[in-house]
């Protein structure tokens, strides 16, 4: 999945790679020291900026839709 902002894509790829390597090679062996934490912070800042620039309402993602009359049904 791509990042929400094109300008964040390289950061997302770098963070995903770092996290996946750490999780598989260290975390599952008991090492909970996260070397990707700083990179995540930079990526998170980029994503938050992209959300603001696109004027996305994050409240929309928290609304219940499935099983309600707001759910779009197939014709």
From TrEMBL:
Pfam families on file: UPF0203 (PF05254)
GO biological process annotation, one example: phospholipid translocation
GO cellular component, one term: mitochondrial intermembrane space
UniProt keyword terms in alphabetical order: Disulfide bond
Catalytic activity: a 1,2-diacyl-sn-glycero-3-phosphate(in) = a 1,2-diacyl-sn-glycero-3-phosphate(out)
Gene Ontology molecular function: phosphatidic acid transfer activity
InterPro entries associated with the record: MDM35_apoptosis (IPR007918)
Record family assignment: Belongs to the TRIAP1/MDM35 family.
Official protein name in the record: TRIAP1/MDM35 family protein
